[in-house]
Amino acid sequence: MARASLALIACVAAVVMAPPRVAAQEAETTVDEIIVTARRSGAPMWEVTRGGSTVLLVGAIQAVPAGIEWRPGPLEQATRQAQRVYFPQRISASPADLFRVIWRSRTLTRMPEGRTTTDYLSPEWQARLDALEATYGKDWSRDSFLVLSSELLSDRLGLRDRGNQEVGEVVRRAARRGRVPVTSIGSVRGDAVIDDLLTRPPESWVPCVEATIAAAEAGRPAVEARGLAWIRFDVPAVMASPIEAAMSQCWPWSDPALGTLLRGQWISAVEGALRQPGVTLAVAPLRVLAEPGGVLDDLERRGLEIIGPDWRADQAAD
């Protein structure tokens, strides 16, 4: 059970590297080539330029299923030609923080004493959970909603599978080989994350659990459809997927404080990148880019030209 909690905490982590910078003069001569190359990868991305600065925002999703092929080679090549690479936030956790997770694992993995899921879910949603329990031969009634949501998404829907190459690992490997500077766009204190998980009451998890139940009911076909929409640049379809809806409703993105912090760090990071010469290639969760009020909406609101696929359903209808 503790492994599920640790896995969720690790989802905001990223590796930080600092190899030598590429000269700005080289950046001036390779911008168009980098952009064209990156677009051939089949991963949705957006180009934003201001003055001599260009940011390529690569929208990543977790677990593109095996058999849904995108082309990592061009993205690797574009990464090696970029001047810098941005990755999601890292968690600054100490051994004491991890020990705390293990020590308090009962709080993180089990319902409060004497409580079950029926104390928090409506009869309709409890009946739907009962049906899933019968399907999978499981009893989640006394498991915490943290564990329940993790198992439904990761184990039952296969989102923990390494079926296809993830965008982040492709870019990270290429940056390391090309000695391109890599920066995490921010950090989150490990003790703050653990405090948040330990003090969240079960009722605050109900929207997450309802969304993950709906996602589990949709099953693997919904996972496949989401992956196909991603490689076809149909971003509104990805965002409307019950899989993506569940991830958006669950920790950390649904947490008022932590979710706001993570989103705000991305907006600040893109603004900072637009003040640096050359090309910044940023790998960001697609939901952070394309959600209502997200990074792309913020850039559009500020009058910047955004080149790339439609990210809202109303754009596709225009």
Detail the topology: elements first, then pairings.
Elements: H1 2-10, H2 24-39, E1 45-50, E2 53-60, H3 72-81, E3 84-87, E4 90-92, H4 95-103, H5 105-109, H6 123-136, H7 145-156, H8 167-178, E5 182-184, E6 187-189, H9 190-199, H10 206-231, H11 235-240, H12 242-249, H13 256-273, E7 278-285, H14 286-290, H15 295-301, E8 306-307, H16 313-317
Parallel strand pairs: 2-7, 3-5, 3-7, 4-6
Antiparallel strand pairs: 1-2, 1-8
How far is the first residue's CA from the last residue's CA? 48 Å
Give the DSSP E fraction (strand runs of 2 or more residues).
5-15%
Shape assignment: globular
* Helical content (DSSP H or I, runs of 4+): 40-55%
Summing up helix and strand content along with how strands pair, one would put the structural category as: alpha/beta
Q: What is the H/E order?
A: HHEEHEEHHHHHEEHHHHHEHHEH
Uncertain residue ranges: 1-29
Spatial order of the strands in the main sheet? 5-3-7-2-1-8
Mean pLDDT level: 84
**Tally of alpha and pi helices:** 16
Largest sheet: 6 strands, mixed
- Number of separate strands: 8
Radius of gyration: 20 Å
